[in-house]
Amino acid sequence: MATAPLSPAPIDYRHLVQDGRLHGSLYTDPAIFAQEMDTIFHRGWSFVAHDSEIPNQGDFVVRRVGSQSLVALRGKDGEVRVFYNRCPHRGATLCQTASGNRPRITCPYHAWTFALDGRLIGLPDEGAYPADFSKADAGLTPVARMDSYGGFIFVNLIPNKLTLREHLGHATELIDALLGLSPTGRIQLSAGWMKHKMRSNWKMIVENQVDGYHAPMVHGSLIAANRTFATVRDRKPTSPTRVRDFGMGHSDIDHASDYRAANDKLFRWTGGIDPARLPQYVGAMNDAYGPEDARRRLIEGPPHSMLFPNLSLAEMNIMVIEPISADTAVQYTCPVFLEGAEDLNARTLRRCEGAMGPAGMLIADDAEIGELTQMGVTNLEPEWIILSRGMGKEEVLPNGVKLAGLMDETSQRGFWSHYRDVMAGSQENVR
Amino acid sequence: MTVTLLEPAPASGIDTKAVEQFLFHEARLQDEHRYDQWEALWTGEDALYWVPMREGADPTREVSYIYDNRPRLASRIRQLNTGVRHSQAPQSRLRRLISNIEVSETDEGVAVESNFSLIESRRGLMTIWAGRTTHLLERVEDGFRIKRKIVNLVNCEEAIGNLAFLV
Questions:
Q1: ipTM of the complex
Q2: List of chain B residues whose C-beta atoms are within 8 Å of the C-beta of residue A364
């Protein structure tokens, strides 16, 4: 675990994060990790859970945001609330399983009992407390701010100046694109989360989520072993695929730009399933959006993106990055089920297992490279990491979004530029 | 747990020693990364290699670590055989112990349950894996073939590291 530095000398993030190069200590220094938890995860907006994970009253999930354990819980009124996973009495952990359903929350220590909306509704021998003790003051503690977009619930533990919409910025378009693949506009994250322990810094996972450069090398073994994976998209440097920097640290690999280049073909994003094999889904999409718009959606497919700081809409998977320490993180992966697309969902589930998680034919190799990189950057020299591929050649759209080639490191520079603003800004405010 | 195939008492008439030897042989092929020989232990079709994330999971609705049919299993082996599957290059050093073997006859074939503990040594780290395995075996002329193999890891609900070797 990270510990606070002995002398809290300010860390100069404007020096450590430069345009096109990064200081290696950003991945290894426990003091930087501790500041990131506080500045990025506690003072910023972070993804915590999706509405569809807790559909019924009493459903809960336990999630970690920064260093904090939180419980997202659906009340009897149907509202989702997020509380700290801590009994207000003597501090015991309330929910010990990753998910579950309870009619009320009872602390295992002294059986203080809370309603699903957080109110303290009972405790043994209440009369022994002083006259000024009030149950109304001893309920569960909700997080300071929560808000949601498209069912994705975000929290901000120490309030900042941004609304969730301001934090998301252009990234709402990515969420819209994913939801727009469902005939009802809704997704379900009901298949459970793979939990993959990675011995690398959380930011390496962020960078890799939107790295268009590594696939032919890191995933060469799968390209050699699996024809579908080898041919489903153009991975050459000349690929029409763009990477995009949306600002606010959000970025993506826009595979749709490749798929559109061959616009007679639907479903390349599923590995090229014949539309005739998905009659229910295709029919429901045509009914919902009309044949022309449905066709566009089924060509373009889902986003392949990273939303600052911890949520990745990774095509038909949602991935969440949970930092543990400077050199350890857990990556969560859940396949995306589209409401009204049962025939596709069965395939999505099997594709997720083939590619993702600790045994996945893709991600196990990403985890391995992350570990090698973490070991590598522990060496003191060379001090700097080079991140300048394609720098200065980006196309800047009128709305500020930057476009670059598939293999350019524009997406990572987008993350780091926002990281620097957030981390340096916080330091400068303290001074 | 729903994946159990065993009856309460072992059926008679099965050569349990031969079953045991088959499991030990399979374990050694896995430990020594003899991928093709391990793949050859499987039936030609209708195979299932399943590592769930939760005991009693419904694999049609819940995601598993591994849920390989025969073509997917073949892909997995082809990938390992490239020698550049980074998560197994270098390969883990492995040795596993198989124990608590229980055998019964079912309509589908010979059902076997066993416990394993597996030590993985890789890059300076020793990792302990453990679990209970259910095999469904088909009798063939020269012994058995694996029709179904389900591996319930004791830590399947926790965050786990790379599981790119054959478990």
A1: 0.94
A2: 85, 87, 162-164
